[in-house]
Design brief:
about 25% strand; 9 strands; two-stranded antiparallel sheet; seven-stranded antiparallel β-sheet; alpha+beta; about 25% helix
């Protein structure tokens, strides 16, 4: 038997709150050391030789020993923009003007079913497509937008008006385009 008392790791309140989910003494979460160094300006964190895309995800906690206050501060990741840029839920007590090391705690991950993955993929596709500006963006794939010839109009740009119809389910930009083509074909055939 080795002599002497056991050493106990000293943990800050923020780390303890992150490491132990409420009401659970047994479910300790691993605090990992992040690659590189960070600085911040408001809720934007700038990384230097960091690997944010590989190490952190939305919902994870970032922990820094603030160089001004010398206390640990924890913030939640809201967006991972690149390997060198993330956005936080709220700013640190003061901006990190000099680079400092950081630690992180990964949020529990939910297993993604094929249905969840397909829904997420479709939603991302629609968001990317809606980034295209114009009358036919489709507002998230739930609005069918098309031109309709005005009664008695003959040619010219003023001979049409824009019609918007709400859809029950989301459509991709491609699906909306196909619907417009069918609508135009039917309208042309009726003339």
């Amino acid at each position: 038997k080795k002599g002497g008392p056991k050493k106990r790791k000293v943990v800050s309140e923020e780390e303890e709150a992150v490491a132990k989910p409420s009401g659970s003494e047994e479910e300790a979460v691993e605090v990992k050391r992040g690659t590189g160094r960070i600085s911040s300006s408001g809720v934007t964190v700038h990384g230097y030789e960091t690997k944010f895309m590989e190490e952190v995800a939305v919902g994870d906690a970032i922990i820094v020993r603030h160089p001004t206050t010398l206390t640990d501060e924890t913030r939640i990741v809201k967006m991972v923009l690149s390997n060198v840029s993330i956005s936080l839920s709220s700013p640190f007590s003061t901006d990190l003007v000099s680079t400092c090391e950081f630690r992180y705690v990964s949020a529990p991950r939910q297993e993604e079913t094929p249905e969840m993955k397909a829904a997420r993929s479709k939603k991302l596709e629609i968001l990317r497509e809606d980034a295209a500006v114009g009358d036919y963006a489709g507002t998230g794939g739930t609005t069918f937008v098309y031109r309709k010839r005005k009664q008695g109009a003959i040619g010219g740009g003023n001979g049409y008006h824009i019609v918007r119809e709400h859809l029950n389910d989301e459509k991709s930009r491609t699906e909306l385009l196909e619907m417009r083509i069918k609508h135009k074909s039917a309208a042309t055939a009726a003339e």
